[in-house]
Design brief:
266 residues; BIN3_SAM-bd_dom; Bin3_C; RNA methyltransferase; Rossmann fold; binds S-adenosylmethionine
Length: 266
């Protein structure tokens, strides 16, 4: 793993990631707590997609229209492709899927006979690209606002923050705002300050930027997100029995002239 970008190769215990992880059928609690209506038929951006687990779950369980995953680590982008292919290989080939469709083909069948070729429609729905989200451009984008309905930044902003400081974090949130359609949703799972200190302990190269950081996770970071054009809709804390390890914040991109106070829950 890179101690500079958090490019864990075994994140979420996706055991010694081989692209055929049997734990792929376990739902992600962070996605389960979200209001499912914001995901239904949505075009989603998964920033820091790692091994594609979240991307795959979005496609298989949450009824999204499409997902684009981006990660700075090329090896992880390739793993994401194989992981999603594996997950799709277990799906019952059916246009009107009943519950449990994602567990239709046993892991052993996929391992023995190899992944089924995902249907073309599914391949179009899940796509990945490699790059630093703050500075790079999606090679498949034709310019202009991609107009995503939902953007996810799960356990990734610490790495952007430690790489680029407060101004880089602002650029990150501004880019998310630019990539979303007006009123689109932004799901943020910030890492805690103690987690920053741990990262610096593992990689002293990060110390210089770390010591210059003034915007801390919590109120400071939320204020910065608001300055970039978002209003807070809802938050979920840890210890509420929902299986979350970190707080999850749901923001909505504000329309022109719209204030961020008193946004309705979804
Ligand atoms: C800790 S993992 C989180 C994975 C996933 N989002 C989740 O929560 O399950 C952080 C991921 O962000 C990626 N990453 C870090 N900085 C990035 C950047 N600037 N642009 C895109 N991806 C980045 C890392 O390579 C790593 O895969």
């Amino acid at each position: 793993m890179s101690t500079k970008t958090g490019s864990y190769k075994t994140y979420q215990s996706h055991a010694r990631h081989t692209g055929s992880n049997p734990a792929a059928h376990i739902p992600d609690p962070r996605l389960l707590i979200l209001p499912q209506e914001i995901l239904k038929d949505a075009r989603v951006l998964d920033i820091g997609c790692n091994n594609g687990a979240v991307t795959g779950h979005l496609l298989l369980r949450h009824g999204v229209k499409s997902v684009v995953g981006v990660d700075v680590d090329e090896e992880l982008v390739m793993k994401s492709q194989s992981h999603v292919k594996f997950m799709l290989s277990r799906v019952r080939p059916c246009s009107d899927p009943p519950p449990g469709r994602e567990e239709w083909y046993p892991v052993s069948s996929v391992r023995k006979h190899g992944p089924r070729i995902p249907p073309a429609e599914a391949r179009e729905r899940g796509r990945f690209w490699c790059g630093d989200y703050v500075t790079a451009t999606d090679p498949a984008a034709s310019g202009g606002c991609p107009g995503y309905d939902v953007a996810l930044a799960l356990s990734v902003v610490k790495w952007v923050h430690l790489a680029r400081g407060d101004s880089g974090l602002r650029s990150f949130f501004e880019k998310v705002a630019a990539d979303l359609r007006p009123h689109g949703h932004f799901v943020l799972e910030p890492q805690g300050w103690e987690s920053y200190a741990r990262a610096v302990g593992k990689n002293p190269e990060l110390r210089g930027v770390f010591e210059g950081i003034r915007v801390r996770p919590g109120e400071g970071m939320e204020a910065l997100v608001a300055e970039c054009g978002f209003g807070l809709v809802r938050r979920w804390g840890v210890g509420t029995g929902e299986g979350l390890k970190r707080e999850i914040l749901l923001f909505r991109r504000l329309g022109d002239g719209e204030g961020g106070d008193g946004l309705d829950d979804v």
